[in-house]
Amino acid sequence: MVDVQSQPDDRRIPLQKVGVRNVSHPITVLDRDHRTQQTVGELDLYANLPHSYKGTHMSRFIAVFQQHAGDIRMPHFLDMLDDVRTHLDAERAFGVLRFPYFMEKHAPVSGQASYLNYHCSFSGISSEVQREFFVSVSVPVTTLCPCSKEISDRGAHNQRSTCTVTVEVEQFFWMEDLIELVESRASSGLYTLLKRVDEKHVTEHAYDHPVFVEDLVRGVTTAIEDRFRFPWFSVEATNQESIHTHDAYAYVERGRPPMEKPCNLTV
Q1: Is residue 267 included in any domain, yes or no?
Q2: How many domains does the chain have?
Q3: How far are the Cα atoms of 115, 135, 145, 175, 226 from residue 179, in angstroms, in the given order?
């Protein structure tokens, strides 16, 4: 059969990225407490295309991914991108894999168990001169406003917040450790199941631990630097304000800037 994609193109325009987006597929990832976890990933996978080729072979992206989907743990993600470069005869390969990750949490007083969903992602780039891998976790938490507590005679306003940490990875770590670190720097973590005694505890704990969005970002940053050795990382937090129509936001990044930040891995 005629291989149309490999036919020459005379416009002499190389493409930085071609590939597939939003590929939904079951995957297996590592789980600190249960060894592995089954979840569903949404994949973007790209490679560069030289000016001399009319098109890429889209099916090869899917074929490579399916070979790795059963074991897509951190150390193997860049191996998948290496295989993409080989099968597509490309100089560079890029990938982003988004997935829900579930952790079992126990209510603080009753001990009732339930699962909470965290939005996580792997992303990376592979070439002969560049191999960078990133992990991102988005952690929902509660923050209580220190200013509101200080000036109010009764109560203080709080809000649902999301703190997202993105790290450049050189050595393996557990995502659960990073999630728990973020929750420990908020006014309170979130729970799917709470009894009345738990609600009392969570509410009072948040009142006793007020943090601005700036406090949350700074607290997570110092905790990461005390515990981990990432070449680069970023921390951002968004508060969905309960008494304003706008959100509050803070961002910081630390360490050696990567050659290509994870936000640039997608187009």
Answers
A1: no
A2: 1
A3: 14, 12, 22, 6, 15
